[in-house]
Amino acid sequence: MTAPDDRAPRTDLSALVKAYDVRGTVPDQWDTGTAELFGAAFVKVTGARALVTGHDMRPSSPDLAGAFARGATAQGADVVATGLCSTDQLYYASGALGLPGAMFTASHNPARYNGIKMCRAGAVPIGQDSGLADIRSLVEQWTGAGAPPAPAARTGTVTHRDTLPDYAAHLRTLVDLTGIRPLRVVVDAGNGMAGHTVPTVLAGLPLDIVPLYFELDGTFPNHEANPLDPANIVDLRQRVRAEGADLGLAFDGDADRCFVVDERGEPVSPSAITALVALRELRRRPGATVLLNLITSRAVPEIVREAGGTPVRTRVGHSFIKAEMARTGAVFGGEHSAHYYFADFWNADTGMLAALHVLAELGARQEPLSALTRRFTRYAASGEINCVVDDPPARLAAVRAAWQDRPGVTVDDLDGLTVSGPDGWFNLRPSNTEPLVRLNVEAHDAQTVRELRDEVLRLVRA
Q1: 113 in a domain, yes or no?
Q2: Do residue 277 and residue 368 come from a single domain?
Q3: How many Å apart are CA 75 and CA 40, to the nearest integer?
Q4: What is the number of domains present in the chain?
Q5: N or C: which end of the chain has fewer CB within 10 A?
Q6: Is there a contact between 139 and 13 (Cβ–Cβ < 8 Å)?
Q7: What is the pTM of this model?
Q8: What is the mean pLDDT of residues 22-44?
């Protein structure tokens, strides 16, 4: 790639380009003009002769995806436009077609946000260290003057292709649900892309689906499409109890994450789901490696070892985990945020495939989900606590200074600050996308969790 001309005017995109995606408000932080530049820069950096795009149901998504395609075709690349799709459906298209891809979504963020998740062919992620910084540099250089013309005179073409049927069929080859017992399942799509994908993926199975907020609406009229916030699964929990359902599933806005509640309407920890799926994958591939981000419950590596697998601890974030999946040859990876990664899905994350595993495991047993997942819960946990702070590095330094010399305590910096002691552990890390620090605490009992939590929060909020 030609080095940017330092004399060219630049726009600072640091607030828009994050560690592993593009994310910001429309139109004040970015618009179709910016999206067109991203399309041109994407082709320049990846060398793509063809690529695939998709977008979610946000009002701004179709225009942004179209502008990106214009920028890409102006550089001579052909574009396969899949239209409305979930993020993992875009990853499917990238893997199955062998093309780089760009998904237009802001995931669980409010309606005024939008973004781009980009990957190379085979759903290989593009993050700051794997091309995103170069893309940002070109967009900054070209802002105002526009992208230079392509070396060749050819303009690429745009073709439209619906990948939903093939995506659904592929997922169904990975998990066999044909012999499960009938299950009643409440699914909260949050007015997001699960309302588009779930009816096709789950069609014809012995499932009685009770739909909740399946209407595609990027203004999110019922609740934010972030199932990790307890406020956003209140309706799902109530409906599961009212329907006498076997379980509930909640998806985020772009449907790449799936959160589970049991038959009592009680949330099931993503760590427990990680353990459940890991055991299923280890039964197919004994001794395989399983990745776990550092905030996952310590119960999960214990369970993986007990099953003969090899747990590997990794930092938070999809681009980092996908790279580790490829490096280690891991069969599966799980995050505390309900992202689940599969070797059989190009190492990419797919909440839908995780949901199929849960349905298959529950449907093969007579016990309720609460009993099935209880065996995977060994410790008490705080859940993720977000604190807005002016100076995250200073807050982490204050917490480190308070703990690093205590007897029996270990401190590491794999991702933020992790402090482990004889009674429990906590992780404090800055957000990649917001002015926050995020605290997670786990210990042998709830009282110790509260004590650790409160001690850390006093320092964070000082």
Answers
A1: yes
A2: yes
A3: 6
A4: 4
A5: C
A6: yes
A7: 0.93
A8: 97
Which alpha helices (H) appear in 285-406, and where do they start and end?
A: 299-306, 318-328, 351-363, 369-374, 392-403
Q: What is the pLDDT of residues 358-389, one digit of tens each?
A: 999 999 999 999 999 999 999 999 988 999 99
Written as one letter, the residue type at 322 is K
Q: For residue range 133-154, what is the model confidence (pLDDT) as tens digits?
A: 999 999 999 999 999 988 777 8
Judge whether 54 lies within some domain: yes
**Cα 301 → chain centroid:** 21
Helix axes 446-460, 392-403, angle to 10 degrees: 130
* Spatial distance between the Cα atoms of 290 and 313, rounded to a whole number of angstroms: 9
> Tokens standing for 258?
């799936």
Could you tell me if 227 and 259 are in contact, meaning their C-beta atoms sit under 8 angstroms apart? yes
**Max CA-CA distance within the chain?**
69
Give me the pLDDT at residue 318, please.
76
Q: Establish if 6 belongs to a structural domain.
A: no
Per-residue pLDDT tens over the stretch 342-361: 999 999 999 999 999 999 99
The alpha carbon torsion through 317, 318, 323, 326 (nearest 10 deg) reads: 130
Q: What residue has token string 């994350």?
A: 349
Are residue 80 and residue 125 in the same domain, yes or no? yes
* Residue 6, pLDDT score: 43
Give catalytic residue positions: 107
Using the predicted structure, report yes or no on whether residue 219 has a pLDDT greater than 80.
yes
End-to-end CA, the chain: 47
Instruction: Quote the Cα angle for 41-46-49, to 5°.
Output: 95
The whole-number pLDDT of residue 8 equals 46
